[in-house]
Amino acid sequence: MHNYSSILQTCFDKIFEQDFVEVIPNIPNIKKEKYVQCWHIKTEVDIQGMSNNIDLYVGIPNSFPYVIPDFYYFDSQYDYFPHIDYQNRKLCIFEENLVLNVEYPELIILSCLKQAKRVISNGINNQNIMDFTQEVESYWTLSYNNESTVDTRYIIYGTQPEKIEVLNILQHYNGNKLIVNDNDLQFVRKHFHSVVVGKILFLPRFTISRRPPYVITWQGLKDCVDQVDLDEIERFIRTTGCLNILFPLANNSLFGGVYFERINTRINGFRDTYFTPVKALNKIYKTKKIPRIMAKAYNKNRIEGRTSGGISTPYKFSIVGCGSIGSNLCSFLRSYNDASFVLVDNDLFTIDNIGRHLLGFDSINQFKTVAIKNVLQSTRPEMDVQAISRSSYDCSVSSFVESSAIFFCTGNLMAELELLGRFTKHNVLTPKFIVWFEPYAIAGHMIYLNKLDNDRTLQSLFTNELYKHNLIRPEEYKNPDAFTKRDAGCNGSYTLYSGNDVMLFLSAIFPLICDLINSDSPSTCYRWIGNTQIAIEKRIGIFQTEMQKYQIETFPIQ
User: Which residue ranges make up each domain of the chain?
Assistant: First the structure.
């Protein structure tokens, strides 16, 4: 490719073949240092069947041709039309993920100019007015005619309003404002560091104009509602002394509103009792621009719609043993949209656990189950997580009966056999997974037991507490000094492995887990090949395998 000056000159000459163009020092009201070169273009667009002259201003970024130039249109006589930022007058001509052929920068410039003219022509001729509705969020959040900035920190949490009702506004510690109804108020207070700071009236029938500017005044508000809604608004004002209104903008997930928290009724020259809030609005603030807000809905259905595209099947996962494998497995399983958890472990999280556990410094000396619950609910507060901070021996079978899958990550074969035995006795028909590492993460193992198999099936896979598909030879486990640390495994004590080993192992077996949860496959053993090089370095005897590192071997259970 030619040098940058040559590229710009080529593009400039190409435009000059069809339109007048000149280099200018800067674009009006735009910072000069934003662009390496600025142009003024005189061109024509079709307006109602006739050719009209227009002026465009172009800013060339230093990343051109990998990033398209910015086009500005400052003539306001045809306002308002879509795809222009009315705060700086920059046109939106292409989507951000546009793929460009950088070998032909002059064609990029010509294409951008053509599209900029099309945006202006279609907008002025009302050919794309519905884009305001389809992209209402972009235009609602713009400020018009020197009004104050739209406050977008509002979140409608929980049940979405559908009828006229007064809702609560809570101030969250992170600066966001939660809008909740009375039924959800107790839950929000319990799970969020927030306090009630106000009320807001929801009007389901209120609609904004088809096109900007979306400036709202008290008089304009009254003109847009019927007498029923106006009576509700005035009743709300008399009760609260404020004008806080919420209404739907689009597709049940986006809401607009106005927020006039304190209506001043003490007006100079009048007695303090002369003005009521409603009277003050009618006499003093009639044409005052009311600050606007925008709120987005947070609820399970919306999150699922934004991810999977529909309502997901609910899953309940039970994790017995919340060490490094069990805790990080939770992180994988919570990717299911409608997941709930039962967490069983009686250990406290300690400094020694940091590095390969889901938890970190803030969770030291907390029960692992409780701390993991807090982590899961910090992402999805409505997630149902039951933290059982007791040994599995003391855990009731009733806690597991509705599980979609049960995962054993205890590092204690006898505890797993005991609980499986009680499952058999109480006819708990649920898929079960036993997951652990061999020392040094030389291998990782997962035993899948379908819903009909039980403790006897698991017991048949072990001889003298040694797993029949271990990669490390049995005689190595006879030397207790060889392995000095203990974690999720059925084979005694052993040395360290890293958080990276945990993630590599879980990433390999998670696709298998997803398939097996929803199948009636026969019970199967899986072996993941891990740090075999460490076995060689430490002269630890292992069985030969045809599998490469990070691959998985499968062993049917006879």
Answer: 4-129, 138-298, 307-556
What superfamily in CATH does domain 4-129 come from? Ubiquitin Conjugating Enzyme (3.10.110.10)
**Structure confidence by residue, pLDDT tens digits, 86-96:** 989 999 998 87
Which of 381, 384, 354 has its CA nearest to residue 502? 354
pLDDT score for 480 = 62
- The model's pLDDT over 474-504, given as tens digits with 9 standing for 90+, comes to 999 887 666 655 444 444 444 578 999 999 9
46 phi and psi angles, rounded to 5 deg = -85, 125
Non-local CB neighbours of 170 within 8 Å, separated by 6+ positions: 177, 178, 179, 180, 185, 188, 189, 192, 194, 195, 196, 197
Query: What is the model's pLDDT at position 492?
Result: 40
pLDDT tens sequence across 188-234? 888 887 788 899 999 999 999 989 999 999 999 999 999 999 999 99
Q: What is the pTM of this model?
A: 0.79
Across all residues in the chain, what is the average pLDDT?
91
Sign of CA dihedral 95, 97, 98, 103: positive
Per CATH, the homologous superfamily of domain 307-556 is: NAD(P)-binding Rossmann-like Domain (3.40.50.720)
Contact 338, 304 (CB under 8 A): yes
- The CA-atom distances, in angstroms, between 260 and each of 176, 282, 293, 367 are 17, 14, 10, 45
Alpha-carbon distances of 374 from 343, 358, 369, 384, rounded to whole Å: 12, 12, 9, 11
> How far is 29 from 405, CA to CA, in rounded Å?
61
The CA distance from 441 to 360, in Å, is 22
Please provide the size of the chain in residues: 558
